[in-house]
Design a protein that fits this description.
Blueprint (H helix, E strand, L loop, with lengths): L8 H11 L5 H16 L11 E11 L4 E7 L4 E3 L2 E3 L6 H13 L5 E2 L5 E7 L8 E11 L13 E7 L11 H20 L1
Parallel strand pairs: 1-7
Antiparallel strand pairs: 1-2, 1-4, 2-3, 2-8, 5-7, 6-7
């Protein structure tokens, strides 16, 4: 017998998008676009949704520094926050946490909810995989103070803790700067509330 009271994975993902703590009209537009995608794609949690699919990513913060952990993504050849495919998992906060642990090698991470950012970005075609969209739900993930990353060498070419002033110029897009600033602000607010 199926438990009718528990939400489906897609309903759980939808709830993460609805509950996201967003700032600004552009973010609200992303919420609308992602909700419309979910409503029109029953397979939005799977890579088999070839036009695009939901992903979860983690802005990993060490609140003792403060600094953000970025990974150098092998496939995309860019410095990015850890993240990846939902692969059917509707709890996108857990997707973000899983990906952060896998890609950085860190343990003892804590994911904060609700999500703090939404993004839709194109992924270029590679091999048999066509160009498609990632509809990304982003969460702050707290690392233990002084954590040292041991990045996954299969997916990454390294990891770096990046302070807000970004002395090495790794935050190369306005979108990345906005995301990091938002995550640091949320972390500071939560620390001030405790």
């Amino acid at each position: 017998m199926v438990d009718q009271s528990s939400p489906s994975p897609l309903e759980r993902a939808r709830r993460h998008v609805l509950d996201a703590d967003l700032v600004g009209d552009e973010q609200e537009q992303r919420r609308t676009e992602i909700l419309e995608w979910i409503d029109t794609h029953d397979d939005a949690l799977y890579r088999t949704c070839l036009d695009g699919h939901l992903t979860g990513s983690a802005v990993v913060i060490d609140p003792s520094r403060p600094a953000t952990l970025l990974i150098h993504h092998k496939k995309l050849q860019m410095w990015l926050q850890p993240g990846g495919h939902a692969d059917g998992e509707g709890d996108l906060a857990q997707v973000a946490l899983r990906e952060a642990e896998e890609e950085t090698g860190l343990r003892g991470l804590t994911v904060l909810t609700p999500a703090v950012d939404l993004d839709i970005h194109g992924i270029p075609a590679r091999g048999d995989e066509p160009e498609h969209l990632h509809l990304d739900v982003r969460f702050v993930v707290l690392a233990q103070p002084g954590s040292i990353a041991d990045p996954d060498e299969i997916e990454t070419m390294g990891a770096a803790w990046v302070p807000p002033e970004d002395p090495d110029g790794l935050l190369v897009t306005d979108e990345m700067r906005r995301l990091i600033d938002r995550a640091l602000a949320v972390t500071e607010q939560r620390n001030g509330a405790t």
